[in-house]
Amino acid sequence: MESLMAYVVGILFAAAIYMMLRRSIVKLVIGLILLSNGANLLIFVMAGMTRGAPPLIPEGALAPSSAVADPLPQALILTAIVIAFGVLAFSVVLIRRAYEVVKTDDLDQMKDTDT
């Protein structure tokens, strides 16, 4: 299962780079979204894909009694999702304003800043 997820992460990164190299600014933002999703999945896979109980230690014990899930990667991914949503919201507003001013979403035609 982890090798399949490694392929999925690679495909997400490849698709993100391909989309970010396109001339349209909308495709650039889609590439950024794919890149953030690929990074989140990479963190998730690197932490290990084992089912485990919550990381609680029973009273009187020194260690958990069974395999536990690592909460740190989950917290990192949750934070990354919130940051990616903020970047997406900012990007959508920026794209809308740029399209209103320049009347195109082609990055090559947006080089003129005098409009």
Describe this structure in words.
- The chain is mainly alpha-helical and 115 residues long.
- The chain is 63% helix and 0% strand.
- The chain is built from 3 helices and no strands.
- It has helices spanning 2-20, 25-46, 71-102.
- Helix 1 runs antiparallel to helix 2 (25-46) and helix 2 (25-46) runs antiparallel to helix 3.
- The model has no long low-confidence stretch (mean pLDDT 86).
Summarize the structure.
Helix content is 63%, strand content 0%. With 115 residues, the protein is mostly helical.
Gross geometry: elongated
* Unreliable residue runs: none
Strand content: under 5%
Annotation, overall tally of beta strands: 0
Question: What's the main sheet like?
Answer: none
Radius of gyration: 20 Å
Report the mean per-residue pLDDT as an integer.
Answer: 86
- Please identify the structural class as seen in this structure: mainly alpha
Binned, the helix content reads 55-70%
The number of distinct helices, counting runs of at least 4 residues, comes to: 3
The end-to-end distance, rounded to whole angstroms, is: 52 Å
**How do the helices and strands follow one another from N- to C-terminus?**
HHH
